[in-house]
Amino acid sequence: MRDALTRIALPPGGRAGARLAFGLAMSASRDSQLRLIRALPDPQHQTPRALGVDESALRKGHTYATILVDVTARRPIDVLPERSTDSFAAWPSKRRGVQVICRDRAGCYAEGAVRGAPKPLQVADRWHLWNNLSTAVEKVVRRAHARLWPCDDREIVDLAVPQRTPG
C-alpha cells in the first residue's frame, strides 16, 4: 500500500495525489502524501552530457544561487550556494563527461566553464536565445513603426463588413 501511495503521490504532489488516491479507494491525506515523498532517498545522478547552468533566486534581489540541470533528462542535478565563477568552476572540474554547457550570457558562468571544463562546447540556452531574439525584433519594429504604418487622418478608410446576401 505504501509503494502504491508513493507512486500516486510523486507525479502530482500532495493535494492532487490525495484526490487521486481517494478516487482509487485509498485513504491518504495530502500531508501523508508529502511525507511519503520526503521519505524517498535523493536520486543519484550521473554526470550529464549536456549541463544547463543558470541563476536561481533564493531571496529575490538579495540572495542568488546557481542551479545545474541535466538538459537531456530535464531534471535538476545540483544547487550551488552562490552565483560565482569559483563555485561553478569547481563542479565540472570534479566530474568528467560534460560535453555541452548551456548557459546564459553571464560572465561568471562563461569564465567558470573555461576554468572548470575547457573542452565542452558552450552554447546559449533556448530560453535566452528566444528572449534575445524577441527583444531585438521588438526594438527593430519600434524604430521602423512610423515608416511601416504611416497614417494620416484623411487616409482612414471605413472597413465596413459587407452584408451577406441570402442564398
TrEMBL record:
Pfam families: DDE_Tnp_ISL3
Residues of the Transposase IS204/IS1001/IS1096/IS1165 DDE domain: 51-148
Protein name: Transposase IS204/IS1001/IS1096/IS1165 DDE domain-containing protein
Superkingdom as given in the UniProt entry: Bacteria
Species the sequence originates in: Actinorhabdospora filicis
InterPro entries (alphabetical): Transpos_ISL3, Transposase_DDE
